[in-house]
Design brief:
The chain is of the alpha+beta class. The chain has two domains: 45-147, Rieske Iron-sulfur Protein; 161-388, Naphthalene 1,2-dioxygenase Alpha Subunit, Chain A, domain 1 (Alpha-Beta Complex), CATH 3.90.380.10. The chain is 20% helix and 28% strand. The strands form five sheets. An eight-stranded antiparallel beta sheet has the order 12-18-17-16-15-14-13-20, sandwiched between helices. A four-stranded antiparallel beta sheet has the order 5-4-3-6, with no helix packed on it. A hairpin with a 2-residue loop joins strand 17 and strand 18. 38% of the residues are buried. The model has no long low-confidence stretch (mean pLDDT 95). The structure holds FE2/S2 (inorganic) cluster and fe (ii) ion. Residues 86, 88-89, 91, 106, 108-109, 111 line the site of FE2/S2 (inorganic) cluster (FES). FE2/S2 (inorganic) cluster is lined by residues 86, 88-89, 91, 106, 108-109, 111.
Length: 396
């Protein structure tokens, strides 16, 4: 068979939409193919919200899989994503996670760039090739587009527009970002999970009250809600009417789980964009989780937390307290996820298939509307992944 990758020949993709072969989580050649087809492929990847770099010269660095990026707000107020590599011989330009600089100097031969990425100085220029012009050597930039201040990049020239990529998820994303994206950064949690990136991205609507002990301890029931998936791309969103438990002796500072009215409908929203972004607005926590694979068995997640620019200082303090303690890698109602991500990865070294059940009414068909506590909402995401990686589904 010509043109087929070894992993496509070896791994049998089941006929049923609710079955996933476990080998895909642990096979090294497939991991490399995922980097090429998905992370360097025709997808949009969120890399920063503009509010993370509020002032001219503010920067942050991040990685998109193995590709280093540098995000800078220029003197002109514009936020740009660059490859974090010198235009001379590709030395990594910036190593700090974040900071502020008026100029970015490459230490190797001291080429100097301004905050718009233009080359403004280079030693010994008279001895360079004839006709050398600094204008021809800015820091290179990947394709980029933004929505509500959230900057996305893609490393492929073939990617559709961001609008076409997001589909209906665009409305959910704007809603999560306070309706207008006018956010103010209040902090980060940076964490590495020892799991494959697909297991991290496979968190579902079924598990929260079952895995997370705080829901039981606080006698906290989920409200009515809706879950939908986009018909292409495999994004999905869970919207739940927000119920908040009555104050209880289990928790000393009940403000950690208190909902303060911010003029938004009282509901929690969790949006997962293919391949790895999770954005959520839950209680008063506005969070964007920037995630990337580090290795086949490791992901890095930067949980960024935000207030809204219209918040008063007391609301900002409330959001900081709640963001630190309620949701996130060490949050009261979400901390068990880290353990499960790792244990699922260990379990995935065994043969066979992972089988989705909750909310699956017909395994031979894909649906796009679910109950908020179904796990079947993940299946359109898996179907998009299957096609992106070129697996052929077994005939029924
Ligand atoms: S590699 Fe940056 S100045 Fe030479
Ligand atoms: Fe969870």
């Amino acid at each position: 068979m010509t043109g087929q990758e070894a992993y496509q020949r070896d791994i049998v993709w089941p006929a049923n939409y609710n079955e996933i072969p476990k080998e895909i989580f642990v096979r090294q050649d497939l991991y490399q193919a995922e980097i090429n087809r998905i992370f360097r492929g025709p997808e949009w990847h969120p890399v920063a919200h503009e509010s993370e770099v509020p002032l001219p010269g503010d920067f942050k660095t991040c990685n998109l899989a193995d590709v280093p990026l540098l995000i800078i707000r220029g003197e002109d107020g514009k936020v740009r994503a660059f490859y974090n590599a010198c235009s001379h011989r590709s030395n990594q330009i910036e190593v700090k996670p974040s900071g502020n600089r008026t100029e970015f100097e490459c230490p190797y031969h001291r080429w100097l760039f301004n905050s718009a990425g233009e080359l403004v100085g280079c030693p010994n220029q008279r001895e360079f090739t004839p006709g050398f012009d600094k204008k021809d050597y800015p820091l290179a930039q990947p394709r980029q587009e933004s929505l509500g201040g959230l900057l996305f990049v893609t490393l492929s020239p073939d990617t559709d527009s961001l609008d076409d990529f997001l589909q209906e998820a665009k409305t959910s994303l704007m809603d999560i970002m306070g309706g207008d994206g006018r956010l103010r950064l209040i902090g980060y949690h940076r964490v590495r999970y020892l799991t494959n990136w697909k297991a991290y991205s496979d968190n579902d609507g079924y598990h929260p009250p079952l895995l997370h002990q705080a829901f039981t301890m606080l006698n906290w029931q989920g409200g009515a809600g809706r879950q939908y998936a986009t018909t292409g791309r495999g994004h999905y969103c869970i919207d739940t009417e927000l119920t908040v438990p009555k104050p209880t002796s289990v928790i000393r500072d009940t403000s950690v789980i208190e909902f303060r009215d911010e003029g938004r409908p009282k509901r929690s929203s969790v949006l997962a964009l293919f391949p790895m972004l999770v954005a959520s607005n839950y209680l008063n926590v506005i969070s964007i989780r920037f995630a990337t694979p580090v290795a086949i068995d490791e992901v890095e997640v930067n949980y960024a937390y935000f207030a809204h620019q219209d918040d008063d200082e007391e609301m900002v303090r409330h959001r900081i307290r709640q963001s630190s303690n309620a949701i996130g890698p060490s949050g009261l109602i979400s901390m068990e996820d880290a353990s499960v991500f790792h244990r699922v990865h260990i379990g995935n070294r065994t043969p066979g298939k992972a089988v989705f059940q909750k909310g699956v009414t017909d395994p031979s068909r894909l649906s796009f509307e679910f109950r908020q506590n179904d796990e079947s909402g993940n299946l359109p995401h898996w179907e998009y992944y299957r096609a992106a990686m070129g697996f052929r589904r077994t005939a029924a």
